[in-house]
Design brief:
Largest interface: A-B, 38 and 26 residues
CATH superfamily of the largest domain in chain A: RNA polymerase sigma factor, region 2, helix turn helix motif
Helix content of chain B: over 70%
Distance between the termini of chain B: 122 Å
Shape of chain B: rod-shaped
Oligomer: heterodimer
Largest sheet of chain B: none
Amino acid sequence: MAAHCENEIIARIKAGCTNDFEYLVRSYQGSLFRIVGNLVDSSMVEDLVQDVFLSTFAQIQNFDPRLGTFRTWIYRIARNRALNFRKKKREQLMVEEPLVVEQHTPSHDLLVKEAFSRLDQALNELKFQDRVIFVLAELEGLSYAEIAQIEKLALGTVKSKLARVKIKLRNALQPYVS
Amino acid sequence: MKKETFYTQWKEHRCRVPVPKHFATGIMARIENQVQKEGYELPAGLTDIQDRLMQWSAAAGLVLIGLFRILYIAANLLRANQLLP
């Protein structure tokens, strides 16, 4: 959705057209499920994403398009919710339990499964901020500038952190590469 | 298999987080409920006035009790003076 269209919709919601919020829900539900689903335990993802949308609606009067895009604003809310949840529950980072839909094909042999499981483990071992940076950059395709805005970091820091995370993850694959 | 292929396939695998059916509808129903509830609640200004009225009436009551007590004591003193020879 183009930013100006989005801002028009937000202006209408602020004016009282609450039904227009559904456009935002439908536009962002997929990416929020991916982001939150890769940051917390799978059983809580739906509740947390729901919570993100409800608090976005409650705080929408505070959104100022001059300070940033709606996308970075809502992603920051999601990131904060995921972090609070993890602090509260003191949960261990995601276990090997898959939060994604498994699609077994003949190519998914034992070796691939093991490699994926090793990568999942390496992802779980990352610090929360590194994990957020990885998810936003590698799974959501956000720019460094957007990630810097969400994480409130310098652009250079985001670049170097992401580079380190990628090296860590690729190193985890070392035993599985022929 | 190459490292890069593993890595790319794994990222695709992690992107497959399904959105439950009717998720958006559920959210909108909750928001509608919330909006309706807020509509029936007293506005913040009115609840403030109610609180202040309660405080003022309590203060006025205490002042009245105090005055009554002072008058009672004063009246007793006057009566006692009259009884003295």
